[in-house]
Amino acid sequence: MTPFQNISCGATIKLTSTWLKFLPATLRAKIEHRPNLQKVLSNIGWLFGDKILRMGMGLLVGVWIARYLGPGQFGLMNYAMAIVALFGAVANLGLNGIVIRDLVREPEAANTTLGTAFLLQFIGGLLAFGLAVVTVSFTRPDDSLVKLVVAVLGFAMVFKSVEVVKYWFESQVQSKYIVWVENGIFLALSAVKIGLLLAHASLMAFVWAAFAESLLVAIGLLAVYAWRCGTLRAWQLRYARAQTLLRDSWPLIFSGLAVMVYMRIDQIMLGQMLGDEAVGMYSAAVRISEVWYFLPTAIIASVFPAIAAAKKISEPLYYQRMQRLYDLIVAISLGVAMTMTFLSGWLVTQLFGAAYADAGPILAIHVWAGIFTFLGAASSHWFLLENMVVHMFYRTALGALVNITLNLILIPDYGGQGAAVATLISYSVAAFWFDAFNRKSRRLFFIKVNSILLKGFYVR
């Protein structure tokens, strides 16, 4: 039985290879008799299509909104979003990788895994909502608008419980169904946001549009799962299963919190120390810096099941596939970083306008953090497969501590550029240097070094 069989729906997913006929004959000959490779490539294609559409339309609408709101209100909205994102790890309880791993390893228990994970994440979403509201009450006690924005966006985290459907489709390397749902709703809500822009709507109108998108995506995911796999009543809740999931995921919860701290604390600290306009400048740079993140994310999500399967076959094959993954994402990251560094000032002013000109130097620094972002994302799967989730918490906690410390030192004198430097250094500490000083992950460090030096495979 392969890890790509759809046990919970009672049938094997049929592979669709119509796209093969469009490939050159030599390439087609190498692929057409390798069904699992076809499935991975098809899945990557769907994820790419999804993210490219979101990148294009999202950047267009996002830039339009930023221009319309101006650095002040745009910064306020991103400050509120950073507060909410800070507790995103509590909402999903660190279960995404754990659930995907277990669906691959134990497909016969899929209904129990999905049902139990759904309830756990629903409770986690409510807890995350409460934490976000309490936090903003302390950071901005007299700002009623930002507290309302946090409350609306924070409650949307409850809908993250439905993401267990995404985990199931990812474990089956069948992301196209998720793409259908999310893209359809994304396009519809993008049209709504354009309408709001033309109608000169208030900031809260855009916040409610974001809430509506989260709600509709949750409904759509449940609908597509019911369509492909029948009734949701087959999901089962088991107390023993909940204990197992939480026992495996608790380090990931704290690790996720640490990740969110060193990914979002810069915007929160800028807002507290310099004001919303500084957050607006920084957020404009980050939006461009992260616009390409869909590419490595799609690759990692698609090849993770194959890497997990290789571990069962042989260790050399397992590490060979890990090396290939690192080589690819580092090559992509370096290419993007070098290009954006030279175009940063021009890109910012062309997209966001002269009011955001100060975001150019921030972008030139922040874009280099992408290399370490995806080294960390890929190695997170390695830690999961090696049952070393506690070490994931150690490295992200270290990164968060470094980020907070550097922000306190650099933001007062260097503003957004100081925050970008703090982000770059802290990402490198957590995703790269930590492995050099940890005996158990030192092999992973050498794989990363070889990828950065473009040396190719490293197999001991």
Give a description of the structure.
The protein has about 450 residues and is mainly alpha-helical. It has one domain (about 35-450). The chain contains 17 helices and no strands. The protein has helices spanning about 25-30, 35-85, 90, 95-105, 110-140, 145-155, 165-170, 175-200, 205-230, 240-275, 275-290, 295-315, 315-350, 360-365, 370-385, 390-435, 440-450. Helix 10 crosses helix 11, helix 12 packs antiparallel against helix 13 (about 315-350) and helix 12 (about 295-315) packs parallel to helix 15. The protein is globular, with a radius of gyration of 22 Å.
Label this structure with key terms.
mainly alpha, 80% helix, single chain, 460 residues, disordered N terminus
Please, how many domains?
1
Percentage of helical residues? Answer: over 70%
Strand-pairing-aware structural class: mainly alpha
What is the 3D shape?
A: globular
User: Over the alpha carbons, how many angstroms does the gyration radius reach?
Assistant: 22 Å
Query: Unreliable runs, pLDDT <50, ≥5 residues?
Result: 1-8, 10-16
Our measurement of the CA-to-CA distance between the termini, rounded to an integer number of angstroms, reads 29 Å
Percent strand equals under 5%
Number of helices: 17
Give the integer mean of the pLDDT values.
82
